[in-house]
């Protein structure tokens, strides 16, 4: 295993984590890991789910204390007994699921817990709103400090989270999957903010599964695998293949293992599907064994259209034919009965019940198969779940453990298994690899190809161009609720799709 050697920086490190270890009962989460952060530099923390990234962030922010090793800030060893101690040292984190409060104003969210006070110890509302406005202006956020958080878009909520981080005079900013719910334009805006933070001399730890983002915004990297720091160095001197080998301990030759499948006859015909506010005049044929990629920017109407196919919402016009027979889908139950299933983007909120065990989640949509005389037979539930867990190579200690204890990739497998148990004809996968690591992505892609090879038809919504280009037989692009084009796989390139999605044709 070759390890990339770091090139010395002009500026000394702002923060170093040396030989950090952390164990939980039966698990060695971190084993003598090293991370170095330099001022004015973005360092990408890369690793599969379960590699120890989250544990390291919790140690760095004072939530956990390490069992061994030391944290050094400006050359001086420090100890963070709690989150407040980390904040006093200028360390703050912006998480993928930022904890903010809908009913409070933007300013109140920014200064929650450390609002400026007057001589009587009361909140100085004028000073708080003025400081919030200044912070928002510093990151070019077009937001009023008086606006209620619930009235903001997801992208603007991220800006509030960044302003909150800067309100404590942060010197080290941790960004954990900050682009997961952002559109292409919003990601570009976020990267401009990051460049501004770099110019201010802040050290940034950037955690992402998206290699194209890592290479665009970060200068340095550190790779974790199985709780160990495997390699670090400059991204400009390290190719993606080398980083993948560090991550998974092997070469992943085919991240998008698309099988050559004989495409059959039309199984689903969509004609003029429309909704009063979300999409209009969507028409296409889906063929047996085909993977149809559905691409577009966030807000293009892709998920809303597919939710209508699944009966979550009702179209105002249009028709569906399945295997040449007209069908009317008014509810998800109608869609399931017809053979159409939908794996949602937010699997933790809409696809699975995280507190329930794996076997009950997998059998949830097919309880008729495991019920006798009105009573559920747990042994049959286990047998059904075991069949699909084995087929999907689900990694879990037992089928009785809660789904919420699994990694993102394994949670996705549980949701897919639940729907495969219904024996569908069409499966809709909404951002199927969102937030999961490179190894799990390859496994999901391989299984997607297997499903197509077995004659199942797949509609795959994805915002990741490599995934769309690598897995689709055809690509349908949506823009502002309308079809912007439908292309065959051959001759398709990323620039063509982006132009169609943005209207820059």
From TrEMBL:
Which is one Gene Ontology cellular component term of this protein? plasma membrane
For molecular function, the Gene Ontology terms on record are: ATP binding; ATP hydrolysis activity
ABC transporter domain ranges (all copies): 15-251, 261-505
**Annotated compartments:** Cell membrane
Presence of keyword Ribosomal protein = no
Indicate the principal place this protein occupies in or around the cell: membrane
**Membrane topology type, per the record?**
Peripheral membrane protein
Q: What domain of life does the UniProt record list for this protein's source? A: Bacteria
Pfam families documented for this protein: ABC_tran (PF00005)
- What species is this protein from? Microvirga tunisiensis
SMART domains the UniProt entry points to? AAA (SM00382)
Q: What protein am I looking at?
A: Sugar ABC transporter ATP-binding protein
Keywords of the record: ATP-binding, Cell membrane, Membrane, Nucleotide-binding, Repeat, Sugar transport, Translocase, Transport
Its lineage opens with:
Bacteria, Pseudomonadati, Pseudomonadota, Alphaproteobacteria, Hyphomicrobiales
Say which family it is in: Belongs to the ABC transporter superfamily.
């Amino acid at each position: 295993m070759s390890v990339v050697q770091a090139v010395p920086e002009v500026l000394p490190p702002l923060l170093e984590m040396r030989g950090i270890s952390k164990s939980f009962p039966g698990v060695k989460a971190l084993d003598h890991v090293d991370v170095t952060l330099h001022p004015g530099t973005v360092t990408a923390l890369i690793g599969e789910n379960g590699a120890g990234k989250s544990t390291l962030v919790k140690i760095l922010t004072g939530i956990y204390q390490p069992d061994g090793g030391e944290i050094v800030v400006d050359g001086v060893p420090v100890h963070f007994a709690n989150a407040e101690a980390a904040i006093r040292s200028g360390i703050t984190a912006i998480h993928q699921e930022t904890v903010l409060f809908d009913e409070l104003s933007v300013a109140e969210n920014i200064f929650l817990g450390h609002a400026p006070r007057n001589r009587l110890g009361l909140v100085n509302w004028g000073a708080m709103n003025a400081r919030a406005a200044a912070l928002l202006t510093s990151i070019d956020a077009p937001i009023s400090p008086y606006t209620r958080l619930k009235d903001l878009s997801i992208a603007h909520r991220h800006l509030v989270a960044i302003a909150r981080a800067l309100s404590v005079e942060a010197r080290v900013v941790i960004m954990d999957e900050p682009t997961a719910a952002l559109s292409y334009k919003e990601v570009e805006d976020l990267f401009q903010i990051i460049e501004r933070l770099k110019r201010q001399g802040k050290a940034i730890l950037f955690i992402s599964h998206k290699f194209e983002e890592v290479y665009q915004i970060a200068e340095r990297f550190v790779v974790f695998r199985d709780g160990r720091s495997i390699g670090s160095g400059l991204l400009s001197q390290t190719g993606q293949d080398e980083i993948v080998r560090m991550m998974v301990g092997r070469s992943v030759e085919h991240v998008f293992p698309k099988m050559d499948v004989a495409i059959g006859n039309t199984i689903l015909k969509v004609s003029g599907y429309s909704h009063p506010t979300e999409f209009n005049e969507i028409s296409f044929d889906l063929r047996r064994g085909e993977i149809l990629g559905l691409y577009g920017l966030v807000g293009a109407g892709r998920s809303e259209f597919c939710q209508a196919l699944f009966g979550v919402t009702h179209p105002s016009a249009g028709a569906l034919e399945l295997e040449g027979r007209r069908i009317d889908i008014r509810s998800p139950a109608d869609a399931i009965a017809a053979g159409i299933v939908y794996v949602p983007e937010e699997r933790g909120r809409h696809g699975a019940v995280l507190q329930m065990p794996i076997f009950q989640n997998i059998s949830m949509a097919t309880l008729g198969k495991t019920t006798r005389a009105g009573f559920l037979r747990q042994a049959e539930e286990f047998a059904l779940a075991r069949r699909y867990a084995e087929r999907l190579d689900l990694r879990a200690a037992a089928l009785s453990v809660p789904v919420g204890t699994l990694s993102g990739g394994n949670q996705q497998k549980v949701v897919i298994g639940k729907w495969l148990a219904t024996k569908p004809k069409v499966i809709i996968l909404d951002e199927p690899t969102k937030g999961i690591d490179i190894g799990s992505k390859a496994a999901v892609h391989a299984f997607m190809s297997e499903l197509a090879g077995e004659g199942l038809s797949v509609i795959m919504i994805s915002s990741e161009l490599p995934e769309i280009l690598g897995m689709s037989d055809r690509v349908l692009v949506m823009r502002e609720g309308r079809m912007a084009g439908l292309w065959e796989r051959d001759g398709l390139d990323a620039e063509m799709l982006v132009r169609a999605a943005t209207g820059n044709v």
